[in-house]
Write a structure and sequence with these properties.
Helix 7 runs parallel beside helix 8. By secondary structure, the protein is of the alpha/beta class. Helices cover 42% and strands 17% of the residues. The strands form 3 sheets. The protein has a 7-stranded mixed β-sheet, sandwiched between helices. It has a 3-stranded mixed β-sheet with strand order 1-2-11. It has 2 domains: 133 residues, Aspartate Aminotransferase, domain 1; 233 residues, Aspartate Aminotransferase, domain 2 (3-Layer(aba) Sandwich), CATH 3.40.640. It starts with a helix and ends with a helix.
């Protein structure tokens, strides 16, 4: 058996490309603004996680350039050895203060946070309880550990409760959940999760990749949104959404972060986050704090699109965030709709199996504080036209 046989047998991408509706790896030749340029054409961007519109902010770009001018383009090593710069330490202290937590450790990507944290914390006698729609990095982090992982039905607190009741009392336990689910856009039921955490003596980790900068009065995420920050043991965040860069972090009690810092393989065996990213995030945090109106505008845009998409007849599920999906049916319809939307001047993302159950393929849209009403109205016209053309609405 040739290990490459599976590669020859994989034809989906080629089949979709042959049909002229391939909608992945599209080349964008402009910043992640509300309008981007693809193949020389202006396209309204409804597929970016640039929620606060900071990736092209002049102050953020200048801070990134200033960091490169001072430190160079890279760190040439891991944080554990030669790669720790004072800007890394400054960023971690700044993040800890922003999140109102004891300590922070940064990673080169958000994906590596969950890989490293879960794989190093879960030992042979430990159990991770995972929502079955948790991000792939959570699933993979649990798989890399020596512990056991148990999935419960998405958002089903009764199913989670039953699994906790059946787990041996002497086993170490942690519930790991997305704050905002990245495809569906719904928000975790944190009050109920906290109740179960306290009743069964587990720990609780929230992946707030899509909640940071978006949820809460000050943008601290799901915990702040529900007034339960002190009940969440670990919060994971990423720099690649609201914070306008690349990288990630985890925050919690000092002893736990110290342990992760010296045991998470994806941190200690990876090169340090680049100085440019650290500079950008420091400036993005400053802007988030001084310009709360960005978050207000983001939610005005979100509420408008949620309402108008519903009025058009789209099934947007339980979305309660700037991530608003539209269920369209089979995978080919999702690809076709994404391709047709681009023809009509709108960029949106097709989401197909196995990311969603068969027959539940969707078009994922997401919104920015910097979208203007004319952008949204133009997008709605295209969505209505293509949705009716494909009999989705």
């Amino acid at each position: 058996m040739d290990i490459f046989n599976k590669c020859d047998q994989f034809t989906l991408s080629r089949d979709v490309q042959a049909a002229g509706v391939y909608a992945y790896y599209r080349s964008i030749s402009s910043p992640q603004d509300p309008v981007v340029v693809i193949d020389g054409e202006d396209v309204i961007m409804l597929g970016s996680n640039n929620y606060l519109g900071l990736t092209n902010h002049p102050e953020v770009k200048q801070a990134s350039c200033d960091a490169v001018a001072k430190y160079g383009t890279g760190c040439a090593g891991s944080r554990l050895l030669n790669g720790t710069l004072d800007i890394h330490v400054e960023l971690e202290e700044r993040l800890a203060a922003f999140m109102r937590r004891d300590a922070v450790i940064t990673f080169s990507t958000g994906y590596q946070v969950n890989l490293g944290v879960l794989s190093c914390l879960l030992d042979r006698h430990d159990i991770a309880f995972l929502d079955n729609l948790d991000h792939a990095s959570i699933i993979d982090g649990a798989r890399l550990s020596f512990g056991k992982s148990l999935k419960y039905k998405h958002g089903d607190m009764a199913d989670l409760e039953a699994r906790l009741e059946n787990a041996p009392a002497e086993r170490g336990k942690i519930i790991v959940v997305d704050g905002i689910f990245s495809m569906e856009g719904d928000i975790a039921n944190l009050p109920r999760l906290v109740e179960l955490k306290n009743r069964f003596g587990t720990r609780l980790m929230v992946d707030d990749a899509h909640g940071l900068g978006v949820l809460g009065e000050h943008g601290r995420g799901t915990g702040e949104h529900f007034g339960l920050e002190h009940e969440v043991d670990l919060v994971m965040g990423t720099f690649s959404k609201s914070l306008a860069a690349i990288g990630g972090f985890v925050t919690g009690d000092s002893a736990v972060i110290e342990y992760i810092k010296h045991h998470a393989r994806s941190e200690i065996f990876s090169a340090a986050p680049p100085p440019s990213s650290c500079g950008a995030v420091l400036k993005a945090l400053e802007i988030i704090e001084r310009e709360p109106e960005r978050r207000k505008q983001l939610w005005e845009n979100t509420e408008y699109m949620k309402r108008e998409l519903g009025n058009l007849g789209f099934d947007t599920g339980l979305s309660a965030s700037p991530v608003i999906p539209m269920v369209v049916g089979d995978d080919l319809t999702a690809f076709t709709m994404a391709s047709r939307l681009q023809d009509e001047g709108v960029f949106a993302n097709p989401v197909i199996t196995p990311a969603v159950p068969p027959g539940q393929a969707m078009i994922r849209t997401s919104y920015m504080a910097t979208h203007r009403r004319n952008h949204l109205d133009q997008a709605l016209e295209a969505l209505e036209k293509v949705g009716k053309e494909l009999r989705v609405i």
